[in-house]
Amino acid sequence: MRYEGVVIRPPSEAGSLILQVTLGCSHNRCTFCSAYKAKKFRIRDFDEIREDIDGVAGKRHVRRVFLADGDALIVPRRMMMPVIDHLNESFPNLERIGMYANAKSVLKRTPEELRELADHGLGIVYLGLESGDEEVLMQVKKGVGPEKMIEAAQRIRDAGILLSVTVLLGLAGREGSERHAQATGEVLTRMDPDYIGALTLMIVPGCSLYDDYMNGTFTVPDPMESLRELAGIIEHTDVTDCLFTSNHASNYLPLKIQLPDQKHEALSLIRTVLDENRHDMLRPERMRGL
With left for phi above 0 and alpha for psi between -120 and 50, is residue 110 left, alpha or beta? Predict the structure, then answer.
């Protein structure tokens, strides 16, 4: 299996076969992300992808495959379907294919195309909402506003594909934290995903938000402010049945809860940490990472 550059996958895909069908990200403009800045976006040739699949087939028991890099759903149907068909032929025990997508690439697909992908094994799509606040999404150059995010989410769910949505604590800075939390919870409610993953902003060199941070025009919320934001998102999120996690390495307080059943339990825990100033319950800075 050949890989080019840094390969990123969701935590839940740790046991999956990672297959690069694209290199980089088709959007690659988000101010908070430096993951793909060193890569020029391209879709890999099918012959290259097939060679990678053939190199693993028969040598490894593969139940799940994750299609990298940043936005595999951008690959046109005429190129994607042969890849998925070859995966199914090569791995008879394959149960699920997953991929990252952005709202633009989802909305370029017709409902019929998405259902076809689902019928052939696309089982989960990871969609980066980041924030439900339209102003924040514009500032970080996400490319679409909350209404398009909601429309994309609905299209994924209507196709019978599991939807995992990522939100980013701290993205509005200290000044916009409360507004960001409420708007994000409200948009998540309308998206009604199967999974929500909350990560905490970590600013690294290579992204334009780092420059704002260094010149003092962007202030990162401190750990307790980040927890208030997390509580605000959970408080304003009313979903049908969703696994909510904040157990990524970037987060200060790991949570893994089922919503709506454990909503009040989670809020009670966060309020205890805040009211009693329990820094000992938080992940130390030295142990946080991307």
Answer: beta
Q: For the segment 91-109, what is each residue's pLDDT rounded down to a tens digit?
A: 999 999 999 999 999 999 9
CATH of domain 11-283: 3.20.20.70
User: What do you get for the CA distance between the two ends of the chain, in Å?
Assistant: 24
φ, ψ of residue 86 to 5 degrees: the values are: -70, -35
Side chain identity at residue 88, one-letter code: N
Q: Is the peptide bond before 71 cis (omega within 30 degrees of 0)?
A: no
DSSP class of residue 29 equals -
- The tokens of 210 are what? 């780092």
Q: Kindly list the domain boundaries of the chain, sorted by start residue.
A: 11-283
Which residue, among 38, 48, 47, 33, has the nearest Cα to 3 in the 3D structure?
A: 48
C-beta separation of 89 from 134 below 8 A: no
What tokens were used for 59?
């040598």
The sign of the dihedral angle between the CA atoms of 30, 101, 202, 65 is negative
Q: What is the pTM of this model?
A: 0.95
Nearest to 151 by CA among 215, 107, 213, 100: 107
Report helix, strand or coil for 184: helix
Whether 21 and 49 have beta carbons less than 8 Å apart is answered as yes
CA separation for the pair 285, 104 (Å, rounded): 35
d(CA 279, CA 263): 22
From CA 44, how far away is CA 223, in angstroms rounded? Answer: 41
pLDDT digits (tens, 9 = 90+) for 28-73: 999 999 888 888 899 999 999 999 999 999 888 999 999 999 899 9
DSSP string, 234-271: HHT---SSEEEE--STT-SS--EEEETTTHHHHHHHHH
Query: Are 16 and 66 within 8 A, CB to CB?
Result: yes
- 265's enclosing H/E stretch is helix 263-275
By CB atoms closer than 10 A (0-12, 13-18, 19+), residue 11 is exposed
Grouping H, G, I as helix, E, B as strand and the rest as coil, residue 18 is strand
Phi, psi (degrees; rounded to nearest 5) at 96: -160, 140
